[in-house]
Amino acid sequence: MAKVHTPPVSQTRSFSTVFLIEMWERFGFYGMQVLMVTYMMKKLGFADTRANLVWGAAAALIYATPAIGGWIGDKLIGTRRTMITGAVVLALGYAMLWIPSNNPTLLYGALGVIVVGNGFFKPNAGNLVRKIYEGDDTRIDSAFTIYYMAVNVGSMLSMTATPWIRNYVGEHYGDAMGWHTAFGACAIGLVLGLGNYKLMSRTLSHIGSAPDEKPVDMKRALMVGVASIGMVFLSASILQSLLLAKAAVFIAGVVILGIFAHLIMGSQRSERAGLIAALVLTFQTIFFFIFYAQMATSLNLFAQKNVDLHFRVFGFELFTWIPEQFQNLNAIWIVLLSPVLVFAYNSLGRIGKDPSVAFKFALGFGAVAMGFFMYGLGAQSAVDGQVSSWTMVWGYGFYSLGELLVSGLGLAMIARFVPARMGGFMMGAYYVAVGISQYLGSMVANLASVPKQVTNPVESLPIYISLFNQLGLVGIGCTVLALGMLPLMNRLANSHAEARTAEA
């Protein structure tokens, strides 16, 4: 018998509940990320190459574990339950970073806990949005763009706050206390998100997977708990060994190809066009996230060494940046641009002219290329090896537009092309692909490694600009390839649409 829900809950209210907990979860994650590379260098004494690779490996694991978390949500303990479990585990991981110790082992353990928590949270939050708007392609694109804005509202708040907290507390209570209090703020963000969800959870009571509708299976829950503890220790071990990290990335690449091959071969004939389209777009996403990984690595270190921190408008100084806060420009631009894109998608959708996801991906690569070229342009007017803060503003502006067009629609692409029964698992597979590119991105960032003896900005500037110009050229190449594949992608999308119409 169908479950009766009284009173009915609107899609908007259900979406708002997921939107808000996602916002607070991202507050914690980006508040931690914005400081992590410089924390490893300044407090733990890591060289820039090691800090980049440790963070790249952590980011790879953080994005890869959702492949398992999506399956746990779909099949074992339920989408809603798994998402909330993830939020609790993430709060614990950030709380471990709150402990005033500069022992690298504690750092690796905390990152291991964060890896597991994100694996539980990320695919299931996205899958709930997909379930809320299932079958409505135009609204799915808009919903996921707004959902992506939630990510950036949370990150915008935390990437402004945590560097400031570090500096303020550091000045008054000591440098070590400043760093760890900033990480503690991330844990507090998760606690606020969980409290908010508790108040609004009724709006999601009818959304979820089959296990959500049944009492918790204690045997399954125990099995998940034991496996999670094992994953924490495995992740910490991988982070301590760069050789293990490289092997893990290689294995993940093989696994994702295996996942797609298995799903495509085991699918019904009518589903294959959609799955192949999802495969092609996922590989394009891998290339995009190599660019994206520069935000916490090469772009962050560039801001530390080669950017004038005084922000001036018409010659008047408005404020002074903290170097890590430049990463916040990504979030600010996305919050500003998201409503514009949603309006454009909806307006074009009403007249049947909404561009395909594949075309939006191509535009996104072009925007990213322009973003990286902006840094080279800014270097032309550098003073004593330092570029204007405005160079970062405009560079991040193009970069963020590209992110919205590619990453912002990556989840919508899964929702559109992948059958519902594979939704959680495919969300996870998508994040494995993102994880691979995070580690590859940290390797790319190391092409701009600055020797420790180089402290003069005039000497470090050409090292960074060389990398950014090369990334701009690669972005142009990706744009050309994406445009060249449009005819194939359009045929696959049409075949997928025809198959869905025939089933209706």
By CATH reckoning, the class would read Mainly Alpha
Uncertain residue segments: 1-7
- CATH topology assignment: Growth Hormone, Chain: A
| Assembly status | single chain
- By CATH, the architecture is named Up-down Bundle
List the defining traits of the structure above.
Growth Hormone, Chain: A; mainly alpha; about 500 residues; globular; disordered N terminus
Any overview of this molecule?
- The protein has one domain (11-503): MFS general substrate transporter like domains (Growth Hormone, Chain: A), CATH 1.20.1250.
- Residues 1-7 have low confidence and may be disordered.
- Helix 5 packs across helix 8, helix 6 runs antiparallel to helix 7 (175-200) and helix 9 packs antiparallel against helix 15 (423-445).
- The protein has a two-stranded antiparallel sheet with strand order 1-2.
- Helix content is 78%, strand content 2%.
- It is mostly helical and 504 residues long.
Which SSEs are present, and which pair or pack?
Blueprint: H1 11-42, H2 48-64, H3 66-76, H4 79-98, H5 104-132, H6 137-173, H7 175-200, H8 218-240, H9 242-266, H10 272-292, H11 298-306, E1 310-313, E2 316-320, H12 328-350, H13 357-379, H14 389-417, H15 423-445, H16 457-484, H17 486-503
Antiparallel strand pairs: 1-2
Organism: Dyella soli
Pfam family, one: PTR2
Family: Belongs to the major facilitator superfamily. Proton-dependent oligopeptide transporter (POT/PTR) (TC 2.A.17) family.
